[in-house]
């Protein structure tokens, strides 16, 4: 008993160290399991963790301090052959026929020396091959395979110890300890996967040990005991086979349709799914141990099997195929006509306002959009040139010729000689929209109303038109500043016109003025 505990501790530590070493080696050499459409993981992960599990189990079990017996040694040799097969499959995938041939030969080596009838031996051989591949299929989620393997190995170790097979009990205990050391690296988020090397090695060792332990017992309790012992892997394989047959998918094609994946889709986390599978495995192992010891009869397996069948029926209704059943991605819908996939949600992409272009109108100026400066210049017959700004609503916003104080506004052109011009009749004042762009309040002569020839404000109406009273002292006419402002504004207008398609020739006229 003490040696078994020491061996278990040594197996945990050795496997943990070997797993770390194998992970670093796999990362440096690029031996990674790449993500794919039929895989649940989202990043490249090493998948040679089974090398550490097999090496740790064999190294601790074959130390020679405890006798294993000829049957257990033969079992270890056959399991080593399966580990080597899995390693080759991890490095370079093999065909299903080669794997089945090697697995059948290894199972025959285990069954050959047992006291079983030919029919029972054939059934045992088929069952060992089936369970070996079922454990391989269970290695599809972080921590799932390791948790179920630890629980099953410990239960079988108790059964072997009760049968007086101390060597087999030691090997199973060391296997459980090695899987426990590996789980530290395989728990979600997994840093390394078990791979075919570890899953085939573990599955074959557990299946062969179960057949060895139950040899010599009654047929019905033995069959039910083997079924409840491997209830998790058996149910998972049956679920996948039935689901793929109903969907018309190939049985050997991988996918995210296993029990752990379906549990995730109904709300469980990745560690939660592993714990659920471990709990069901514990219930099956406990039932097997009670029936093996004679404490419970075959009817004790009925509640567990009925519960598992009900769970399988419920999990079959979980969608696992198609666009709506993808793990880790938004659901998509398939159009009724044509079958084109479209996202479940569509969002309109905003278009910048400045990028909008509308049809041209009139002289080719853009209509609508942001406010733009359009050179709308008009040259009166005997007056100054004025400038109008065209906005997005195509309305003309004139620039006033004078301020309230009588001072000419910026942008108003005054002829040479200053602002001293003669009075003009009121009939010459028109709107910019009807008189070629003239500014309201500026007569055709270019003089503000009420400004006499001397430049001072007069209270006498011009041509019978009332003039507002003066609102301040005399203000000199800023002729030079006005010209500089008009020149700068002209350059701005010309630049804006060049940037727009279909510029009107009046821009050249404005530049000449």
TL;DR?
The chain is mainly α and 513 residues long. Helices cover 51% and strands 5% of the residues.
Structural class: mainly alpha
Largest sheet: 3 strands, antiparallel
Cα-atom radius of gyration: 46 Å
What is the strand arrangement across the widest sheet? 7-8-9
List the uncertain runs.
Answer: 328-404, 416-463
Written overview of the protein:
With 513 residues, this protein is mainly α. It is 51% helix and 5% strand. The chain contains 15 helices and 9 strands. The protein has helices spanning 2-29, 49-61, 70-91, 96-112, 118-138, 144-162, 166-186, 195-214, 219-229, 231-247, 259-265, 270-293, 301-316, 479-498, 506-512; strands at 32-33, 45-46, 332-334, 341-343, 360-361, 365-366, 376-378, 386-390, 396-398. The protein has a 3-stranded antiparallel β-sheet. A hairpin with a 6-residue loop joins strand 3 and strand 4. The protein is elongated, with a radius of gyration of 46 Å.
């Amino acid at each position: 008993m003490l040696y078994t505990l020491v061996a278990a501790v040594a197996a945990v530590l050795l496997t943990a160290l070997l797993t770390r070493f194998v992970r670093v080696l796999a990362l440096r050499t690029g031996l990674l399991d790449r993500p794919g459409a039929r895989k649940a993981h989202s990043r490249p992960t090493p998948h040679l963790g089974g090398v550490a599990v097999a090496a740790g189990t064999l190294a601790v079990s074959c130390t020679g301090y405890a006798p294993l017996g000829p049957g257990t040694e033969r079992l270890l040799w056959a399991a080593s052959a399966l580990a080597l097969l899995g390693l080759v499959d991890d490095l370079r995938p093999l065909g299903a026929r080669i794997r089945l041939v090697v697995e059948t030969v290894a199972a025959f080596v285990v069954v050959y020396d047992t006291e079983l009838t030919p029919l029972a031996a054939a059934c045992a051989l088929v069952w060992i091959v089936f369970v070996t591949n079922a454990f391989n299929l269970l290695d599809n989620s972080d921590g799932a395979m390791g948790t179920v393997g630890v629980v099953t190995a410990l239960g079988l170790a108790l059964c072997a110890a009760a049968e007086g097979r101390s060597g087999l009990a030691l090997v199973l205990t060391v296997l459980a300890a090695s899987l426990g050391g590996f789980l530290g690296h395989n728990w979600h988020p997994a840093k390394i996967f078990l791979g075919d090397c570890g899953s085939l090695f573990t599955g074959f060792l557990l299946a062969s040990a179960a057949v060895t332990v139950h040899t010599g017992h009654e047929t019905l309790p033995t069959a039910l005991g083997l079924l409840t012992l491997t209830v998790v892997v058996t149910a998972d394989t049956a679920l996948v086979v039935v689901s793929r047959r109903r969907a018309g998918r190939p049985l050997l094609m991988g996918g995210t349709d296993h029990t752990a994946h379906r549990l995730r889709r109904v709300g469980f986390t990745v560690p939660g799914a592993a714990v659920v599978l471990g709990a069901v495995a514990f219930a099956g192992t406990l039932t097997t141990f009670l029936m093996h010891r004679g404490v419970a009869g075959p009817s004790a397996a009925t509640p567990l099997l009925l519960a598992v069948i009900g769970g399988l029926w419920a999990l079959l209704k979980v969608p696992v195929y198609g666009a709506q059943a993808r793990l880790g991605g938004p659901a998509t819908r398939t159009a009724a006509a044509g079958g084109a996939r479209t996202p479940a949600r569509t969002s309109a992409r905003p278009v910048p306002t400045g990028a909008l272009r509308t049809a041209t109108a009139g002289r080719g100026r853009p209509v609508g959009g942001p406010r733009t400066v359009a050179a709308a210049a008009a040259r009166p017959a005997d007056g100054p040139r004025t400038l109008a700004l065209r906005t997005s609503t195509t309305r003309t916003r004139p620039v006033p010729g004078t301020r309230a104080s009588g001072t000419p506004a910026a942008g108003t052109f005054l002829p040479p000689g200053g602002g001293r011009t003669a009075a003009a009749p009121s009939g010459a004042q028109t709107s910019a929209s009807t008189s070629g762009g003239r500014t309201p309040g500026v007569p055709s002569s270019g003089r503000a109303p009420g400004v006499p020839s001397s430049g001072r404000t007069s209270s006498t109406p011009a041509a019978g038109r009332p003039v507002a009273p003066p609102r301040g002292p005399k203000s000199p006419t800023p002729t030079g500043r006005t010209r500089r402002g008009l020149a700068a504004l002209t350059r701005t207008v010309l630049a804006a016109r060049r940037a727009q398609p279909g510029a009107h020739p009046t821009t050249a006229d404005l530049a000449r003025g």
